[in-house]
Every structure is written in C-alpha cells, then in structure tokens.
Design a protein that fits this description.
- The chain is an alpha+beta fold.
- It is built from six helices and six strands; from the N terminus they run αββααββαββαα.
- The protein has helices at residues 3-12, 26-41, 46-54, 69-85, 116-119, 132-137; strands spanning 17-18, 23-24, 60-61, 66-68, 86-87, 92-93.
- It has a four-stranded antiparallel sheet with strand order 1-4-2-3.
- The longest helix is centred in the middle third of the chain and has 17 residues, at 69-85.
C-alpha cells in the first residue's frame, strides 16, 4: 500500500456510532485521524508516524454518541502495521513477513480498555459483592 492509499483509507473510513455504550469522542477521532493522514501524505518518517499514532488518546464518551472504540482501535492497529511496511524511498509498501518474535509482540497502540471486573472490583469491606450497585449505595449500617 502506498502512502496516498493509506492516507485515503484513513480519510474514507467511517465508524459505527454508539450512544449507550462507551465510545470515543467523534470530533477528537476525526481531528487525530486527519492529522495522521496529513503526516503520511507529507512524508513523515516511519518513526514519526509510529510515535504519532502510538501517542493518540481519545476522550471516552458515555451516554452520548461516540465512535465504537473497537473499530477505531482496529484501524489504528492496521495503520501501525502499514506504516511499518512503508518503503519510504519509493513510496510503496514493502511486503511484511511475520517473524517468530512478532508472534508475542503487542501493537504500539495501547488498545487495552478496562473490563468491568477491573473497573468495579468490590472493596474489602463489601459483605456481599453480588448485591449490585443499588444494594451497595443503600446498604444499611
């Protein structure tokens, strides 16, 4: 994939929106992806592009419209993979051959989101952690 094709892919990607589950702020994602596409077109180095994409953080949304987080994260992972394959001298992508060391590596973008278990661990003082939020809020002393 060439630089122009990668930038075009970023520009033309549309994300599903979600209003009830957590998402990413639409304007923040659009602005950041526009900057990434521009950096790709203007010839930033692989290191600069990887650093730019890896440093992206988006404001999460709750109870208002936002882009589905998984879809945005998948695009960023794809961009990182394509950037790694760019042959900067010719403007064309070099084939990527996975190695054994790549199998256990993590992407440069931190796509990990806390799970419900990580966000709402019951405290040590909870007598009954299965009683739910309502029960914990209105527990009798």
């Amino acid at each position: 994939m060439t630089r122009d094709e990668l930038a075009e892919l970023i520009d033309n990607t549309r994300f599903q929106t979600s209003a009830l589950s957590r998402g990413y702020d639409e304007q923040g994602v659009d602005d950041a992806l526009g900057a990434v596409a521009n950096a790709i077109r203007t010839g930033d180095s692989r290191e600069q592009l990887t650093s730019l994409v890896g440093s992206l953080r988006f404001q999460p949304t709750t109870l208002r419209r936002g882009y589905e987080q998984e879809a945005v994260d998948r695009l960023l992972e794809h961009v990182i993979t394509e950037v790694a394959a760019l042959d900067l001298r010719d403007g064309v992508a070099a084939p990527v051959t996975p190695t054994a060391s790549d199998a256990g590596s993590r992407p440069a973008v931190d796509t990990r989101r806390p799970t419900l278990q990580e966000e709402e661990q019951p405290s040590a003082v909870d007598e009954n952690p299965t009683q739910g939020l309502f029960g914990r809020l209105f527990r009798r002393a």
